[in-house]
Amino acid sequence: IINWADGYGIQVAPKAATSVSGSLKLYFVNVGGYCPEALPEAHEFGLFVAETAAEAKQKALAALLPHHHAQHKDNLKDVDNVLLLNERLPDWHITLTPNPQGKPAPIGFQGYQPI
Questions:
Q1: What does the pLDDT look like over 13-30, one tens digit per residue?
Q2: Which residues pair with 47 in a beta bridge?
Q3: How many domains would you assign to the chain?
Q4: For 70, which DSSP code?
Q5: Lowest-pLDDT range, 3-7, 28-32, 70-74?
Q6: 44 lies in a domain?
Q7: Separation between Cα atoms, residue 36 and residue 112, nearest integer Å
Q8: pTM of the full predicted structure?
Q9: Is 80 a domain residue?
Q10: Rounded CA separation 9/29 (Å)
Q11: Could you give the CA distance from residue 49 to residue 87 in angstroms, rounded to a whole number?
């Protein structure tokens, strides 16, 4: 269960006909990269609150894989995936409330999982 990300409390509830969406949205971002001392590609992902995918991408690049200098995609600093979770859950409303004191939920899986 995810109830906090990127400085915001998260509440998910069935979408009502009167649900109002704000400008902030919840994004899942996956970054791939390489460490100079290791051959395998590393991945790290996180949830980021932003108005646009470009803003979520910038936040992820600043926060994820900080010690990986050649960040995937032919040594360009880029991300593998940016998914807008609000669109992936069409029957649900995601409410984001500022909460600087929260903590990220532990990752409960390994490998690829459909979102």
A1: 998 765 667 899 999 998
A2: 28
A3: 1
A4: B
A5: 70-74
A6: yes
A7: 25
A8: 0.76
A9: yes
A10: 18
A11: 14
